Every structure is written in C-alpha cells, then in structure tokens.
Amino acid sequence: MSKIYLLLHPTVLKVCALVCLLSVSASAQNIQLDSTFGVGGKVTVGFSDTGLRSSHAYHVFAQPSGRIVVFGGHISGGQLGTPSVAACGLTSTGALDTGFGNGGKILELNNMFVNGVEALPNGQFLRLLSGGFPNTTVLNRLNSNGSVDSSFVANLNIGSNITPVSVTTRSDGKIVVFLRGIGGDDSNWVVRLNANGSRDGSFGNNGVLLLNFRRPSRAAAIGLHILPDNRILVGGYLSTSGAPSGGNVAWAALGDETGNYDRRFGLQGVTRVPFAPGGIRISKTLLQPDGKILLIGHAYGPANSSFMILRLTSRGRLDTGFGQNGIAIAPNITPDSFDVGYSAVLMSDGRIVVVGTYAATQGSPALALVARFGANGVRENYALTQFTPDQSSFASSVAIQADGKLVVAGFTRNPDASADGNLFAIARYTQ
Q1: Are β-strands 42-45 and 422-430 bridged in parallel, bridged antiparallel, or unpaired?
Q2: Residue 182 CA, distance from chain mean position
Q3: pTM for the complete prediction?
Q4: What is the spatial distance between Cα 51 and Cα 31, in angstroms, rounded to a whole number?
Q5: Which of 165, 96, 171 is nearest to 129 (CA)?
Q6: Confidence (pLDDT) at 28
C-alpha cells in the first residue's frame, strides 16, 4: 500500500497518523463506455485536414437540447505554432451536429486561448479568452449554435499583464470574472458585469474589486464561487517549501463583496491544509448546495500520485464526516501508479465524479481515468479508456447529461503517423 503523509490544518499544528487510503465499495455500479455513442463509446475530432496541427479539449457541456458541446484549443503549424480557439458540437449519438458552427466545428485563428467557459440556462455560453502581448482578455457570449452574440459587449480592460482565471454567473444574471496578475504580480481581481456585459457600477470601483487575498502568498487560485449571499470564495494551492510538484498546501479564502476577509471562515478568513513530503496540486474547486467546499486534484507520494478530494465545511473547517478527517485519498489504480486528477463534477445525490489520467509508471502511456466517489469520499468505481493504441489519452473535463450519463472530454495522440499532435477525445459512460 502506498503511503502519503499529511500534516493537519494549521490550527491543530501537529502531525497526524498516516492517512489510510480508502477502500473501494464493492456494491457500486460499474462505470462503462456507452456503446450507443460514437464507436464503442468514443469519438475523436480534428480541426485540420492537412499540415501540422494539434487539438486539446478542456471544457465539455450537455446542452438542454441534448447536444454535447466541447471547447478547447488548436495549434496550427505544430506544437509551437499559432494558437487558435476550437469547439465542436455532437449529437446524442456522437456524430458532428451540423446545426453547430460550420458542419459541427468552430475554428478561430485568433492567437487566443480558452481560459474558461460557463454554460447559461438558455443554452448560450460565456467564453473567456486570453492571448497576445501584452496579454488581452476577451469575454464573448455565444449562441447555442456556437455563433457569437454581437449584442453582448464585455468591458474587461483593467490593465496589462493580467490573465483570466474563470467566469461564473450569479442568480440575478450578473457575470463575475476572476483575473490574476502575471509577470511577478500576484494580485487578484474580480470584475462584475451586468447581463449585457456592461460594468456593474454598484460593485467595487466601477465594477472592479482588487481582492485582499494576499495572505496565502505564492498562491495559485484555481476557482472562484459566489455564495447565495454574494460572498466571494476562492480556492487553490500554494507552496511554502518549494515542493517539486508545485504546491504543498491546499487553501480556501472567503471574503465579502468589499474584498475583506470573512473572519468567521477558517483562521481569520483563510483555511490552509499543509501536506508533506511529496506535495499536492488542486485542479478543480466545487461548491456543494449545502455550502461545503470541495478542493479536488491529486497528492504525490514518494513514487506515485493519487486522486485526492478535500471537503471543507461552510465555516472552512475540514469536514470530519468525509474521507479521513476531511481528506479522501483514493487507492492507486495499480501499485505505485500515477493517478492525476484534472476536473470534477457533482452528481445530484452528492456523489462526485473526478476525471484525469492514469499511468502504470511514470514513463508509460496515460489512459483517461474516470472515478466516482460517494458523498462520504469513498471511491465507488472507476473506468480507464484509451483512444489511440499505444498512445496517451487525457481526460480534462466532465459533464452529466439529464439521463445521468457522463460525458468526458480531453485529448489523445493523432493515430495518423504523418500528422503532428493531438485530437479532441470525447467518451460517454453509463453508470
């Protein structure tokens, strides 16, 4: 059994016993590829017929109409070529949906990257882009068919050397964009827009709020959530020891609409959960309907990595009813494998689906990994999927259809030996 050592919440200030890796529930229903989708449950999509190219999918959504929409990026001219924005729409059977984009695809040669996508209840999307030098941030609203809604004009110009992190919407339709500084600037900003993209002048300074979240220094902010009472929750990971994996502390901070810490949360507004010795990385944050917070990613051992989920209470304490005192570290798929968590989604019954990659050893081809956890943090089941024989496949995003099926998007190596790079890879699973 692999071992991962954990140092508890800093208010405890002591080393706890070894974290016991959680057992798999034998009674849980299997996760299986859906044979009614694509070929054996799998679809790949490319965005160029000739020349060097590479495509990567990072966001997947199931529209109310049943269409599956995938957003990502495309590099033309090889891995070091020009970045472009790519997307595709699929029917419920996995065929390209000709009612989306141009024959089911969108390719914009605009030297931009997709940083975030938010699905709106009416089937539209908010799409957050960045690119250029100095870095420029653009927020579009797309119609359900992928076309740009020209009636929406967003004002996100707050300076240079700023890159977007995420976009979300409030219950009243207002839009919240989370930005961070680059090039040595560790500042964080929130920009709040009205539903039409104009600045919300009632918030911050003409709609812009500089967050006073500097106490978690050297922090990577991964997600932002707006609570029902409009408080601002941010979470991610940071390093206090130069851990080779990139971080050794998971953190979350809660503030009010003025950017000040809510000192009822964690320790004076901030919760830190340190790990040792291998480090961790948080890749996704989720907010449960009951106000509990999930920090999802993976933890590193001496020679492996494992899916990891932390759950905090609404007051920023480790939830002792989840995993081992608030922390669930899944057993490795095979001994000393590298299981890396990239994204996750909440099911309506409180269970959690985490996606990422599995590799038997550090140098072996990766497989797309989909795992379902119970509401108590115990891993119930998982599935491994390969798209291209003897080549790596990655799962970057997951969505749940209205019928409960899981749609997972990522990328895989192009099987065409004359081509360069990757293709969108989409799979659908029953559970």
Answers
A1: antiparallel
A2: 20
A3: 0.90
A4: 37
A5: 165
A6: 54
Whose structure tokens read 């229903």?
29
Residue among 114, 207, 108 nearest 166 (CA): 114
Q: Record the tokens describing residue 373, joined without a space.
A: 């956890």
Cα angle value 229/232/236 (rounded, 5°): 140
Point out which residues pair with 410 in neighbouring strands: 395, 425
Query: How far apart are alpha carbons 63 and 98 in whole angstroms?
Result: 15
What pLDDT, on a 0 to 100 scale, did the predictor assign at position 15?
28
pLDDT, position 158: 86
Give the C-alpha separation, 417 to 414, whole Å: 7
Query: Cβ of 263: how many Cβ atoms within 10 Å?
Result: 12
The predicted pLDDT at position 80 comes to 61
Give the CA dihedral 89, 95, 97, 103, nearest 10 degrees.
100
Q: Interior CA angle at 324 toward 319 and 325, to 5°?
A: 35
- The whole-number pLDDT of residue 381 equals 96
Predicted pLDDT at 184: 61
Contacts of residue 13, defined as CB under 8 A and 6 or more positions apart, other chains included, come to: none
301's CB contacts (< 8 A; 6+ apart) are: 2, 3, 4, 278, 336
In the prediction, which pLDDT does 319 show? 98
The values of phi and psi at residue 249, to 5°, are: -140, 130
**Dihedral through CA 356, CA 360, CA 363, CA 368, nearest 10?**
-30
Look at residue 304 and give its three-state secondary structure: coil
258 within 8 A of 210, measured Cβ to Cβ: no
Facing residues of 140 across strands? 127
| Residue spans of the chain under pLDDT 50 | 1-27
For residue 292 the two structure tokens come to: 């509990």
Tokens of 375: 């509401």
How many C-beta neighbours within 10 Å does residue 106 have?
23
- The rounded distance, in Å, linking the Cα atoms of 413 and 368 is 12
DSSP string, 97-150: -TTTTBTTEEEE-SS-EEEEEEE-TTS-EEEEEEETTTTEEEEEEE-TTS-B-T
Nearest-CA neighbor of 371 among 410, 402, 331, 401? 331
Contact 25, 374 (CB under 8 A): yes
Cβ–Cβ under 8 Å, residues 372 and 344: no
Q: Are 71 and 114 in contact (CB under 8 A)?
A: yes
Q: How many H-runs (helices) and E-runs (strands) does the chain carry?
A: 0, 28
Render 82-104 in DSSP notation, one character per residue.
Answer: EEEEEEEEE-TTSSB-TTTTBTT
pLDDT of residue 177: 95
**For position 98, what pLDDT does the model report?**
97
What pLDDT is stored for residue 421 in this prediction? Answer: 84
Query: What was the pLDDT predicted at 377?
Result: 98
Scan for tokens 């990766």, then name that residue: 366
